[in-house]
TrEMBL record:
<keyword id="KW-0472">Membrane</keyword>
<keyword id="KW-1133">Transmembrane helix</keyword>
<feature type="transmembrane region" description="Helical">
    <location>
        <begin position="28"/>
        <end position="47"/>
    </location>
</feature>
<comment type="similarity">
    <text>Belongs to the UPF0410 family.</text>
</comment>
<dbReference type="GO" id="GO:0005886">
    <property type="term" value="C:plasma membrane"/>
</dbReference>
<protein>
    <submittedName>
        <fullName>Membrane protein</fullName>
    </submittedName>
</protein>
<keyword id="KW-1003">Cell membrane</keyword>
<keyword id="KW-0812">Transmembrane</keyword>
<feature type="transmembrane region" description="Helical">
    <location>
        <begin position="67"/>
        <end position="84"/>
    </location>
</feature>
<dbReference type="Pfam" id="PF04226">
    <property type="entry name" value="Transgly_assoc"/>
</dbReference>
<dbReference type="InterPro" id="IPR007341">
    <property type="entry name" value="Transgly_assoc"/>
</dbReference>
Length: 95
């Protein structure tokens, strides 16, 4: 995939991840892009490990399946971030 495709997919997946899991998370557009690209890597890894299939592209733009897989990865990353953040918050309140 090209840089344009990774950027488009990252923005879409990051935005969709935040829509699916709304909350008061820090960051703006760059954080959503990083969340989406990270989600693409994680989702692609999990998809390949589970199904043995590859992610597909249509020219220089990502396919719908790619965006969905990346969004699932972004939601997983966001859930892990919130879990770790909540555990850190709870441990600091005990002191």
């Amino acid at each position: 995939m090209s840089i344009i495709a990774w950027t488009v997919m990252g923005l879409l997946a990051g935005w969709l991840g935040k829509v699916i899991m709304p909350g008061k998370d820090p960051g703006g557009l760059l954080v959503q892009l990083a969340l989406g690209v990270g989600g693409a890597f994680l989702g692609g890894f999990l998809w390949t490990a589970i199904t043995g299939g590859k992610m597909t592209t249509r020219g220089f733009l990502p396919g719908l399946g790619d965006v969905l897989i990346a969004t699932v990865g972004a939601v997983i990353i966001l859930a892990i971030y919130r879990f770790v953040k909540s555990k850190r918050g709870d441990s600091s309140k005990k002191d």
